[in-house]
Amino acid sequence: LKDHSKVCHGTQNGLSSTGSQENQYNLIKDRYDGCEIIMGNLEITQIESNWDFSFLKTIREVTGYVLIAMNHFQELPLRQLRVIRGNSLYERRFALSVFFNYPKDGSNGLRQLGLTNLTEILEGGVQIINNKYLSYGPWIYWQDIIRDNSAPIDIRYNGERVTKTVCAPQCNGRCFGTSPRHCCHIECAAGCKGPLDVDCFVSACRHFNDSGACVPQCPQTLIYNKQTFQMETNPNAKYQYGSICVSQCPTHFVVDGSSCVSVCPLDKMEVEREGQRQCELCSGLCPKVCEGTGAEHRQTVDSSNIDSFINCTKIQGSLHFLVTGILGDDFKNIPPLDAKKLEVFHTVREITDILNIQSWPKELNDLSVFSSLTTIQGRSLYKRYSLMVMHIPTLTSLGLRSLREISDGSVYISQNANLCYHHTVNWTQLFRGRRVGVNNLNNNRQLAECVAEGHVCDPLCSDSGCWGPGPDQCLSCRNYSRDGTCVGSCNFYTGVTREFASRKGECVICHPECKPQRGKASCTGPVNECVACANLRDGPYCMSSCPTGVNDGQKGLIFKYPNREGHCEPCHHNCTQGCSGPGLHDCLQTARMITGIALGVPAGLIFCLVLFFLGVLYHRGLAIRRKRAMRRYLESGESFEPLGPGEKGTKVHARILRPSELKKIKALGLGVFGTVHKGFWTPERETVKIPVAIKTIQDSSGRQTFTEITDHMLSMGSLDHPYIVRLLGICPGASLQLVTQLSSQGSLLEHIRQHKNSLDPQRLLNWCVQIAKGMYYLEEHCMVHRNLAARNILLKNDYQVQISDYGVADLLYPDDKKYVYTDTKVTPIKWMALESILFRRYSHQSDVWSYGVTVWEMMSFGAEPYASVQPQEVPSLLEKGERLSQPHICTIDVYMVMVKCWMIDENIRPTFKELASDFTRMARDPPRYLVIKVGESWLDSFLIAAASVVAFLPQLWFQRSRLSSVQTLPERSQVRAVGREAEDALRTVSLHRARFSSERSNARLPASRHRKLSTASSPSSYKVWTADEDEEVDHYGYVLPGSPGTPERGTLPASNK
Questions:
Q1: How confident is the model at residue 969 (pLDDT cuts 50, 70, 90)?
Q2: CA 498 vs CA 492, 528, 647: distances in Å
Q3: Phi and psi angles of residue 898, each rounded to the nearest 5 degrees, phi first
């Protein structure tokens, strides 16, 4: 493999598409035409016609994954593809994914994979499913191609099957014959024609390809010399560029050690050494590198992100100026961009990708805010262009006065009705890359009109052209330049400050020690090239004083004195403190030095003391500012977590969707009330496809259809709360389809099982607060969940959870708090209240029971409740008084909240409002209520023990006979196995239960009338959730430890210590 093999960059779009079919095809063709190696992913999706894909036949290697999905063509010509490296995997599992490549109607569809030379997949597995007409390809022996034996292979619903094994077992699947002696070299990745490392098939190396030889690493820049025991420069060094060893990195890449990288690490900066860009460690603060635009969350420069470009010197990525950024975006509540704020781009000197300007403020007639921009690298191009300026009628000149290099790509400047000067620029002088095509400079103002109105370059500009009017806009100067402005001549003979001309024609000021001359030049170069000195001369250099105590490296310290001609002469070699003449008697006396020391020592001590006190004051000021800032956060409830750019500010109602707008891709899971699919929502008259979750609800009895929109559906669509998964749309029909947001982080149950060793008490308690507030919101809207569990709690991010799977049951009327559900479907028995199991009676208080089990799951790190008990045995256990055991990380305070959620009498269970208040109080001092020993080995054994052990709560026979009645005395004796604090809390609850249950159906009593439990009598006493407490919770429901009102550990009552 030669260094000049064409390398292209892949995509990361997944199943998303852009524009029409023709536009999608053209984008793929422009990107991959003639490519041999793709640095990234090869994605061919949603092509519904038989387009010509012959331009893909040159591809030999893909470093990421290959995705072929939802197409209608018959064959993809990837016959030269030998290696899929799998550095990035589709869905984090597959290096090759082929699915749904056929239409619903018709006989078109993928029939052949065409991967006849693919012999190696280094990382990841293979997925080939739901390809109706695909034969042969899916049924080859993929285990022989996949390097990782543990990688998944998912092949379903395809055609015929043929397999064949050729290599001997000793060859590890790579050979050039059937004999054990015909094994390929260990560095070969996709077959070979001989046993040597140079016999591997082209571009098919496990690690790196060094001029046709497969090697474990490229020749390093430094090698060890065994004779001198030192590291020396390797004259044959090469750099790692993907899987290739190259002698020189591409022009748009930089060298970091022995590798070609697209961007330097954070602690390094780009510098140019001997014509090559290299990464070097910053001596202090590095030049500021800022993220560009173009990503989904940052599509254009607008008023919401303009401040992030302050003091930026380099843009990592692209800069896009679109209409929604300049004029504002009403849909996202983004105001128009103030033209004055564009001044932040004056510091930008380099853009790594492209500069795309499609909209510009009317107040500005040029692009002079980029006057410092010198380089556009074009590492990632848009249709071969790296500079695009279009559709700006107010633009009269470009004003890019410092632009001197376009590393890769071409220029597109079109549809600018008043633009001049661009005709004069010698664009060829700027280009450095190999993909330079024809520039598009059409449909701007005619050259004749510009000349007629005097819009021409300044006479001081050279024939290379200019960016605008004036001598400071020249691409290069005809004569000389001073500070970027062309001048007729330098100040050689006149002026206060005299100048000389550098080799580049720049006027440089003579050194201040050069003496101005009359009628002739004062200097011809730096300080050592002055015609005459203003003060003294030391050899060829002009100086203000002779050197004193300078170490010359050979004779030690030397001293000089000025003679009558103004030249510095050396002192006598015995003079150690300087001299005033050449003799020994001219040496300066040491007494002067003693006097200096006597005066300097006290002054130095005073100076050090002043510095010390100033330092103390400075650090004290910092500490005070920190305390004030923390107090402000705690008192005002400001969030430590930033708001996401996609957070909405107003209530949004769900849409009524048509079945044609939804497309299901694959099943995610089967729930109690329906099936959930991953799919796409394509709004009418739009080409964008939005990934969503589609839940299909169907009445198995066949008695109910969903052809009409009901008030219950509309009520579900109107729910909008930070801790509730928002319903995006409703699709009625024979089966009801509910469209919600697609969660990428999965359920809370999976998260706590996977990250059990890194969870902290603060996060667990805040999740409890958020779930309680979300359930309280459902209660306010008369919505009974009845399937609350950790598996139905989704993570929006690491700090916020959302409740899903709500509202499937019938909507309760506001005046009726209970209803009977008679469906015979399988229900989650272990999470249900006893009255729900025996009498099918569901209410908000039965949801409280499920909430207690959900909290137990969290505190047990995802353990299954009653793991050793059969579901049909659970009711009898509950009637006997048995409950889930106290988790090891919980104190009795937290466990008592769970126990109260599991009371037999539903009327004395706490409400969600009270639960939110309780956990908010606990979240302010997490270590007081949860004790987690991170890294200890007891966590795994705890998960097994916690699921099998239950606590016994004895219960009298007449309690089990009437579960719906209120029993006072037996409830008070249910928790004797839990501990003394649990008995006190239950006793207090029982004393106030009668009054509470009689008044609950009418209205909630004030805080002073509810659960009058003091801290001394019960650590888990309920506290009403008031508006003041709610103000101490941030946007994610995250409670800050040590908030106002939280008792410190040292001030706890004696009964709790």
A1: very low
A2: 6, 15, 61
A3: -65, -45
| Contacts with 706 (C-beta within 8 Å, 6 or more apart), sequence order | 697, 732, 733, 734, 735, 736
Which residues fall within 8 angstroms of residue 611, CB to CB, at 6 or more apart? none
685 touches 732 (CB < 8 A): no
Q: Please give the model's pTM, rounded to 2 decimal places.
A: 0.37
Phi then psi for residue 1048, to 5 deg, are -75, 160
Kindly list the distances between the CA atom of residue 969 and the CA atoms of 910, 972, 991, in Å, as whole numbers in the listed order. Answer: 18, 5, 9
Radius of gyration of the chain (CA): 39
Burial of 611 (0-12, 13-18, 19+ CB in 10 A): exposed
Spatial distance between the Cα atoms of 80 and 119, rounded to a whole number of angstroms: 11
Closest CA to 954 of 980, 969, 978, 973: 973
Cα–Cα distance for residue pair 241/208, rounded to 1 Å: 9
Across the strands, what pairs with 314? 289, 350
Q: Which of 456, 464, 451, 500 is nearest to 480 (CA)?
A: 500
- The strand ranges marked E within 282-390 are 289-291, 314-316, 319-321, 350-351, 355-357, 375-376, 385-390
d(CA 786, CA 159): 44
Beta strands in 940-993 (DSSP E): 950-952
Choose among 147, 211, 213: nearest CA to 185: 213
**Cross-strand pairs, 319:** 355
Count Cα atoms within 13 angstroms, Cβ side, for 631.
Answer: 6
**How much of the chain is in helix, strand and coil states, percent to nearest 5?**
25, 20, 50
Parallel, antiparallel, or unpaired for β 541-543 and 548-551? unpaired
Of residues 40, 14, 67, the one with CA closest to residue 690: 14
Known binder of ligand: residue 347? Answer: no
- Known binding residue 672? Answer is yes
Active site residue 440: no
Q: What's the pLDDT tens digit per position in 784-813?
A: 888 899 999 999 888 899 998 887 765 333
Q: By percentage, how much of the chain surpasses pLDDT 70?
A: 79
Residue 151: Cβ within 10 Å count: 20
DSSP 597-644: HHHHHHHHHHHHHHHHHHHHHHHHHHHHHHHHHHHHHHHHT--SSPPP
What is the reported pLDDT for 578? 84
Cα pseudo-dihedral 539, 542, 547, 550, rounded to 10: -70
Q: What's the rounded Cα separation, in Å, for the pair 253 and 255?
A: 7
Q: Which two tokens stand for residue 733?
A: 């029909």
Confidence band for 821, pLDDT divided at 50, 70 and 90? very low
**What does residue 631 show for φ and ψ, rounded to 5 degrees?**
-65, -40
Mode of pairing for the β-strands spanning 793-797 and 800-803: antiparallel
- Closest by CA position to 144, among listed 128, 120, 113, 127: 120
Is residue 952 part of an annotated ligand binding site?
Answer: no
- Total number of residues shown for the chain: 1057
C-beta separation of 899 from 978 below 8 A: yes
| 562, containing H or E segment | strand 557-562
User: Rounded CA gap, 968 and 392, in Å?
Assistant: 80
Structure tokens belonging to residue 483: 């500070």
- The DSSP letter of residue 104 is S
Which residue's structure tokens are 């006149």? Answer: 494
Instruction: Give me the catalytic one of 426, 787, 797, 1056.
Output: 787
The pLDDT of residue 274 is: 76
Q: Is 668 annotated as a binding residue?
A: yes
Q: In Å, how far from its chain's centre is CA 153?
A: 29
Q: Is 527 labelled as part of a ligand binding site?
A: no
Q: Is 233 helix (H, G, I), strand (E, B) or coil?
A: strand
Report helix angle 892-901 to 980-999, nearest 10. 40
Query: CA–CA distance from 228 to each of 219, 233, 237, 357, 909 (Å)?
Result: 20, 13, 20, 58, 82
For the chain, first and last CA: distance in Å?
A: 74
